[in-house]
Design goal:
This is Vacuolar import/degradation Vid27 C-terminal domain-containing protein. There is one protein chain. The chain is mostly beta strands. The chain contains ten helices and 41 strands. The strands form ten sheets. The chain has a seven-stranded antiparallel sheet. Strands 1-38-36-35-34 form a five-stranded antiparallel sheet. Strand 11 (250-254) and strand 12 (258-265) form a beta hairpin. Helix 2 (34-41) packs across helix 5 and helix 4 packs across helix 5 (158-177).
Length: 618
């Protein structure tokens, strides 16, 4: 367990090598590299420029005949020692050169721009989000991950550092979207309504400032603020697939051959209760559902739907489990107009729907389908299940089958039943409770598929997960009458604020392990109006990563100083496990105690489940 400030933030100038090297770049010494010389001569000129217009800065650079391919003298450091006490930066190349190289004509590469650092080159990597590049203006330094290592490139002058950032942002945009990084290119990608996304440095942060005022200041926790309370081993031969947390007495650990019932306490999950074994269809025949991947609680947490995607990550139906009897009572089929169809995912009707004692509906999602399934027949009566050898058929009660191109990937619901959907192309769409045909708001993608999405109970905030970062979006806007609304209830038009990104530092991106892709990002769990989520959590490799929600929304937060482009937050806490983590999520807010600002965090690995308390004490 630990925090986000690591040895990679050590000032590189503190080393003996650095002091010696700085003498080489004293103003009295000749500089052999022409680009570096021009950078020094025009330092004052470029310092006056602002990041409001990348084109303006680039025009100045081009007037100096400084092109992306021109090598520039710099210093390259390598981070060694990982997370050990001996971890440190070592000088790898004293007089390195870097260049953004255009490989568009290279048949072996599908990516245009590469960052190459020589001689050699020592580093050659595509300019994309996988670099996890983090700029440090105070040290004229850019840290990044490439080739399984963590590097730091330190530029000789402020002007050269600004030039590097401008070139990097341009190359990243062009690699991501496949268009030139011009005003026309940005408008093509983001559209007229998303000027704040295209030009975040010029965006109005008022909505974020308003959000800060709506919450109490975050509690600052000293040192040991993640305390492990309980740890439960998986059963013999089990491999934990997912968690189904309850807001009442029990939660459920979904394993490779069944479901383990555990008790909810204020300190976390504890105690092995009854075990529900899933052996196949009713009557014991083999079934593809024997290894459940997704569990959905419903009907006052007395029933559960189990879904096990097969080929192409889709399923033709769900198992219906009566938790009180421990039996599978039905296998429901997905059908529309008499034709069997498949679903990629299922979700509760709303944030608190699993607590409703008589709920009979749930949501379904496939690549081009968004719908509501009803376990009652078309006349509204609960279907009889038990004696028939044929599987009961779910009633498609509402929804829309899009012709093509939506590429839905994941979804979630708000407290009132509005729906947010993430797509492979990175778009995030908002649907009102009353209509699944047309999105009220569609946020553009940032170039990475959305693999998981969550939303706050009040629908004001959305958290999207990609492989390399999380994206936090505010849906609040004011209509023409000055009334506050969300993008679920009305069209936001051009009143859309820039999102914020949540990222790992380059070092943590490497330390997280080989399976270092984010998954399952979500808010802490509330099910009442007036309650506010306090934290965000996501899983990446061996890490569960926790952000303070209030801190992320704070426009004056230290992470955001001197940043260009979309603001990124690197201040987080980490729970480290010995193996890759399956799932991480907070228990219901009712399990928070007086000495903790949040309910316990539950972390599941393939072989065990651990609970952590975020405490206000040493």
């Amino acid at each position: 367990m630990g925090g986000s400030h690591s040895r990679e933030d050590i000032d590189l100038t503190s080393s003996d090598e650095e002091e010696e090297y700085d003498e080489d770049y004293d103003a009295r010494s000749p500089i052999s590299d022409p680009a570096a010389s021009a950078g020094q001569r025009d330092d004052d000129l470029l310092r006056a420029a602002t990041p409001a217009s990348l084109e303006a800065i680039d025009a100045k650079l081009r007037s100096l005949d400084l092109k992306y391919q021109h090598p520039t003298a710099a210093k390259l450091y390598l981070h060694v020692g990982g997370a050990s006490s001996s971890a440190r930066w070592v000088l790898d190349e004293r007089r390195a050169t870097y260049a953004f190289v255009d490989k568009a004509s290279d048949d072996s590469s599908s990516t245009r721009w590469f960052l190459e650092i020589g001689p050699g080159p020592r580093v050659s990597a595509p300019v994309d989000s996988a670099l996890q590049l983090k700029a440090n203006p105070a040290q004229r330094r850019a840290d990044f991950a490439a080739g399984g290592s963590v590097w730091a490139l330190r530029l000789p002058t402020d002007a050269e550092f600004r030039r590097f950032r401008v070139d990097y942002e341009r190359c990243l945009f062009e690699n991501t979207y496949g268009v030139e990084a011009t005003d026309e290119g940005r408008k093509e990608v983001f559209g007229a309504d998303f000027a704040a996304w295209a030009r975040p440095d010029e965006a109005d942060d008022a909505v974020w400032a308003d959000a800060q005022e709506s919450l109490n200041p975050p509690v600052t926790a000293p040192m040991r603020d993640l305390l492990e309370e309980f740890e439960e081993e998986a059963g013999d031969g089990e491999s934990i697939q997912s968690l189904a947390l309850g807001a009442l007495d029990n939660s459920f650990v979904v394993g490779s051959s069944g479901i383990q019932v555990v008790k909810n306490f204020h300190q976390g999950l504890h105690g092995k209760g009854a075990s529900v074994r899933i052996s196949g269809a009713r009557g014991g025949s083999a079934s593809a559902y024997s290894t459940p991947k997704k569990a959905l609680l419903m009907r006052g947490e007395t029933n559960m739907l189990l879904m096990s995607p097969g080929e192409a990550m889709r399923s033709n139906g769900v198992h219906h489990v009566d938790i009180e009897t421990g039996k599978v009572v039905a296998e429901w089929q997905f059908q529309k107009d008499g034709t069997e169809i498949a679903m990629r995912d299922i979700a509760n009707e709303s944030k608190g729907a699993q607590l409703e004692p008589s709920g009979s509906t749930f949501l379904g999602l496939d690549d081009n389908r968004l719908c509501r399934w009803d376990m009652r027949d078309a006349r509204g009566r609960v279907q009889t299940i038990g004696s028939s050898s044929e599987s009961p058929v779910l009633n498609w009660s509402q929804g829309h089958q899009f012709s093509r191109g939506t590429n839905f990937q994941c979804f979630a619901s708000t407290g009132d039943g509005s729906i947010v959907v993430g797509s492979v192309d990175g778009k995030i769409r908002l649907y009102s409770k009353s209509s699944m045909r047309m999105a009220k708001t569609a946020f553009p993608g940032l170039g990475s598929p959305i693999t998981h999405v969550d939303v706050t109970y009040d629908g004001k905030w959305i958290l999207g997960t990609t492989d390399t970062y999380l994206i936090l979006i505010c849906t609040i806007f004011k209509d023409k009458d000055g009334k506050e609304k969300t993008g679920f209830s009305g069209r936001m038009g051009n009143r859309i604020s820039a999102p914020r990104l949540l990222k790992l530092t380059p070092l943590d991106a490497i330390l997280a392990g080989t399976d270092n892709k984010f998954h399952g990002g979500q808010f802490s769990w509330v099910t009442e109006n007036g309650k506010q989520e306090k934290h965000l959590v996501a899983t990446v490799g061996k890490f569960s990563v926790i952000w303070n929600f209030q801190q992320v929304k704070d426009s004056n937060h230290e992470c955001y100083r001197d940043q260009q482009g979309l603001k990124s937050c690197y201040c987080y806490k980490v729970v480290l496990k010995d193996e890759s983590i399956v799932d991480s999520r907070f228990m219901h807010e009712k399990f928070a105690t007086g000495d903790s600002p949040e309910a316990p965090l539950v972390v599941a690995t393939p072989m065990k489940v651990s609970s952590f308390s975020i405490a206000n004490r040493r």
